[in-house]
Amino acid sequence: MNTVQPATKAPATSAFDRRTEDVGNMVEFGHVNIRVPDQLQAIVFYVMGLGLTRDPYLMTGVDNAWINVGTCQFHLPVGPAQVLRGTVGLVMPDLDGLVKRLHAIAPRLKGTRFAYERAAAQVDVTCPWGNRIRIHAPDAMRFCSMLLGMPYVEIDVASGSAAGIARFYTEVLATPSVVGKDMNGTFARVPIGLGESLVFRETERALAAYDGHHVQVAVADFSGVHRRLLERGLVTEESNQSQYRFQDIVDLGTDEVLATLEHEVRSMRHPMYARRFVNRDAAVTNTVYATGYEAAMWRTPPG
Predict the structure, then answer these.
(1) What is the rounded distance in angstroms from the CA atom of residue 49 to the CA atom of residue 100?
(2) pTM higher than 0.85 for the full model?
(3) Helix spans in 152-302 (H)
(4) Which residue ranges form the domains of the chain, and what is each CATH number?
């Protein structure tokens, strides 16, 4: 006669930190949107210089360009220049090749604010209109398995605002956010998806006026976030069935505006949620070519 074996009791302690596998309500970081006055210069900088890939399927005209970075994008509609109040962080696999490309485009961007500086395992770059981009070499400790991507967008905010910003994202966006301190001061980190985050960095410097640049995220509890924003009068645009926008991040106790950054919020049913992007290997050219190696790897292989 078969007997059912009693279930084995799980040990009281585990060798694994299960919290490292948690994904908050903000399940995807999609893009950073900044207007550019000259699309040709933007293509020179983002495609020829940084070595990124223009989306071959959408926004292929002369009034906007979508630039792929692993699983994220820059959106570059043509218009008066916008400058993000902070720094966009990228990971790229070949900083030596990057520096060579940046050196090559320098004559084409003469007279603009374009600049770059190499420092060990990172390159600090300024776009022709003043946006700051920091490119890191892959680092398993900091960026897990990312080889090509946009691991963070760092926003400058007023001194003393980090704790309130973290609470806003934790309670309104339902994403566990933390306040920390490092050699550059106090910050609030908001994790998004599998490997990206928004970082709000306190600064004593005067902040430039907000000029309308925005970021796009997707959330799992789409209606819950909308309801909590609506209760506080923070929804600024009812875009469509699967998208809305807000821009003010407020102190939940006083309603004081702590930071302003427009968020394009999408649901997981949005047609472009988790859309796969084409990424080229910038090291492959017509003079240095190998069949089948045109595509860039954006994650390290298993093992």
Answers:
(1) 8
(2) yes
(3) 162-171, 222-231
(4) 24-267 (3.10.180.10)
